[in-house]
Write a structure and sequence with these properties.
By secondary structure, the chain is of the alpha+beta class. The chain has helices spanning 2-26, 30-44, 51-71, 75-78, 82-110, 117-126, 132-142, 150-160, 162-177, 185-216, 225-243, 248-260, 267-292, 295-298, 301-326, 335-343, 349-354, 356-360, 366-383, 388-394, 477-487, and strands at 144-146, 398-400, 417-422, 443-450, 453-455, 468-473, 492-494.
């Protein structure tokens, strides 16, 4: 029996990886195809209806995804947009939930479903946050630069807005399931503030502890254990924070930010491990969610009608209004930038995981909530997910993001600056050989790339316009940039 289960999962992973390749070629979100693979197997081969297991797998996967997203985010990039990101992750989520809840309440009454206002707000709360797995995956797979710091803004929002939606879901669950029919607003606000503060404090503290431990501990003979150790810190950050009434999802994201923005031994191995593990977590999570779906229930006319209406309202009304109000105090963003942020309000696995809570709590309309959220997620990934790049190009916010040719793994213990530059005409004005270039002391050109050929240069090596040079220098970044400016070098890509 166990062998059959392993065989089925191996088949699922094989098909999911192939589907991801197909999705990349045709510009579709890979996560959408992962979801489709799960639905296909669930409809024809596998009978899977465990909401508890799905919720547990989703929790583990989100820990990995949020930590990895935080680890890959440079604090220098999110610092300028910290205020707007926090506003979108809190106020924006609340506005989205309220607007959608009111719409669901009136629309459901109009079509004969007659959902109560608390249930309507519960349904809206499950979909109020953007999905970190979808946003991280799509934005980073596209390899497309976005002006006005939009990519770090969107990643910060999606990585930190789950706690707000999670609290709204818990509050509305309390309202729906309460025998008195009400929950203390003051108690809910206090609980939210405590969860945020505890989550931030423990996330930062555990992140610093993880950095200190990995840098100081000496595991001889097997460097792979550093990845296992850091993984233990990830799960500890979530579980311990949750145990002491903090928000575990926020703590995990902040732990990742701290780890990713401090000097860390064996960084190359750790980044490679978590990159692969994050993809595995996303694939498994979306496959399991796809397996869980009852396709016949999704095709119910009431579900389809309500889902299409809610999905359209959220994309065209609720999300734009929430972005407009949340970013109103910040004048740095253009109208086109606000339009783009409104469009990239992707829904994904997180709303579906949140939608399992009403079912497990015995809410009468729990199955309806789950099915509506699932269809809205498909709607969002199909419509918004496939047009992320096209919308950026149409609004004039995209630019070509240069990828370095030299894939150099540089330990944090090496203090030298590594950079890749492109040879220009002005750089060769005094001569074409390497010795003719006015390169500062303690700076070396260690490799040249020309027409897909790589070679180590000498002083008499002749350079050509368009050559890419791997430069190592002990000078600080400011001095190095001054040298590049004097040489007329326009394309400089730091490799750290």
């Amino acid at each position: 029996m166990s062998e059959n289960i392993l065989l089925v999962w191996a088949m699922l992973l094989f098909v999911a990886v192939v589907a991801g390749k197909v999705a990349y070629r045709f510009g579709a979100p890979a996560l959408l195809l992962f979801l489709g693979v799960g639905m296909f197997f669930g409809l024809n081969i596998i009978d899977f209806q465990s909401f508890e297991l799905t919720q547990f797998i989703g929790m583990l996967a989100l820990c990995i995804i949020l930590f990895s997203g935080g680890m890959d985010t440079k604090f220098s990039e999110i610092k300028p947009i910290l205020g707007p990101g926090i506003m979108l992750a809190t106020v924006g989520v609340a506005i989205t939930a309220v607007l959608c809840g009111v719409f669901i309440y009136f629309f459901s009454s109009w079509v004969g479903l007659a959902l109560s206002l608390p249930v309507a707000l519960l349904l809206a709360s499950t979909m109020a946050s953007t999905d970190s797995a979808s946003v991280f995956s799509i934005l980073r797979t596209k390899k497309q630069g976005l002006r006005q710091n939009l990519r770090p803004l969107l990643e910060l929002e999606s990585g930190s807005n789950d706690p707000m939606a999670y609290m709204l879901v818990l509050v509305m669950l309390g309202v729906v399931t309460s025998t008195e029919g009400s929950v203390s607003v003051t108690e809910s606000v206090i609980r939210f503030v405590v969860q945020m503060l505890v989550g931030c404090a423990l996330g930062y503290g555990i992140g610093r502890l993880a950095v200190f431990t990995i840098n100081r501990i000496d595991i001889k003979g097997n460097q792979s254990l550093y990845s296992v150790l850091l993984l233990a810190f990830v799960f500890f950050s979530f579980s311990f924070t949750t145990l002491v009434w903090g928000n575990g999802y926020l703590a995990v994201y902040i732990t990742g930010l701290v780890v990713g923005n401090h000097k860390l031994a064996h960084r190359g191995n750790l980044v490679t491990f978590f990159d692969g593990f994050t993809w595995l977590a996303q694939i498994v999570m979306f496959l399991v969610i796809g397996l869980l779906v009852n396709t016949r229930e999704l095709l119910d006319p009431d579900v389809l009608l309500l889902s299409c209406a809610v999905g359209a309202f959220m994309i065209l009304v609720a999300r734009p209004v929430a972005v407009l109000l949340s970013l109103a105090p910040f004048r740095r963003f253009s109208t086109k930038a606000r339009m783009y942020v409104s469009w990239v309000g992707l829904r994904g696995a997180v709303p579906i995981i949140f939608a399992t809570y009403p079912i497990l709590e015995g809410v009468g309309d729990g199955r309806l909530i789950f099915n509506v959220v699932f269809v809205c997620t498909l709607f969002s990934l199909t419509l918004q997910g496939t047009t992320v790049s096209a919308m950026a190009n149409w609004l004039g916010l995209a630019y070509e993001e240069k990828e370095p040719l030299f894939k150099v793994g540089i330990p944090d213990s090496i203090k030298s600056n590594f950079s890749e530059i492109v040879v220009t005409d002005s750089m060769l004005r005094k001569g074409c050989t390497l010795r003719d270039i006015d390169i500062a002391d303690n700076t070396l050109v260690v490799m040249i790339s020309r027409a897909n050929n790589y070679f180590v240069p000498r002083g008499n090596t002749e350079l050509a316009v368009g050559d890419r040079l791997l430069v190592v220098s002990d000078r600080d970044e400011q001095e190095l940039q001054q040298m590049y400016d004097q040489l007329g070098i326009k394309e400089v890509m730091p490799l750290r």
